[in-house]
Amino acid sequence: MIVTDAVRAYIEQTSPVPDGLLAEMRERGVRDGVPILDSQAASLLHVLARAVGARRIVEVGTAIGYSTLHLARALPDDGELISFEIDRERHAAAQSYFARARLAARVDLRLQDATEGLRTLTAAFDLAFLDGLKAEYADQLDQIVPLLRPGGLVAVDNILMSGAVAEGRPVAEGRPVDGWSSERIATARAFNEHFVNHPDLIATLTPVGDGIALAVRR
Ligand SMILES: C[S@@+](CC[C@H](N)C(=O)[O-])C[C@H]1O[C@@H](n2cnc3c(N)ncnc32)[C@H](O)[C@@H]1O
Questions:
Q1: Where are the beta strands (DSSP E) in the chain?
Q2: Does ligand 1 come within 6 angstroms of the Cβ of 121?
Q3: Pairing with 105, which of 31, 161, 186, 205 sits 20 to 30 Å away (CA)?
């Protein structure tokens, strides 16, 4: 946890109760060990998609579609969301959730490596969300920035890795942090520096969820 337990509990208690489908997806994520977005970060993405008036969105890393559903619900009826996932089972689960959400028409779920898929896209997108393999963030950001319209938004998840990125080692607040090796933390730090200094972006790092980097294209 990056914020204190009390802050987190307060925000959770104050937030509206998620609908049945989102709650089911979250339970499935926990049960099957699928890493899905923090609920506050997902709400933030939804608000930001509405704030930029998003009509076209691209996402890297659908998993079972939890973040995708938050984004899709922010789109107008004729909006479009393209989301890439390489895991066949997760992609299939996302498809079934979108059928149940009756939003399959505005969501193009692609079972494809995102680095390949991004090459086939044409501008302009209003919002991009990067949430795939962390080692691929830098290359995928370079692919995505030219696809964004000026003023378009890019969001990137897990940029603080449970706080370990701030420590610069697989420890946060004195406790070991599972899953984040020193090498991955070094890659994340390099990416964050690249992101905030990107000449085409106006960027900031936030401690929402597991850390979300946000930027708009100049
Ligand atoms: C953290 S999960 C995504 C969670 C999802 N965005 C959510 O919040 O509900 C990352 C997903 O990215 C997928 N992934 C990793 N590298 C990828 C790539 N190069 N192309 C497409 N999907 C990728 C993984 O299979 C995994 O399901």
A1: 56-60, 80-85, 107-111, 125-130, 148-157, 171-172, 175-176, 201-206, 212-217
A2: no
A3: 31
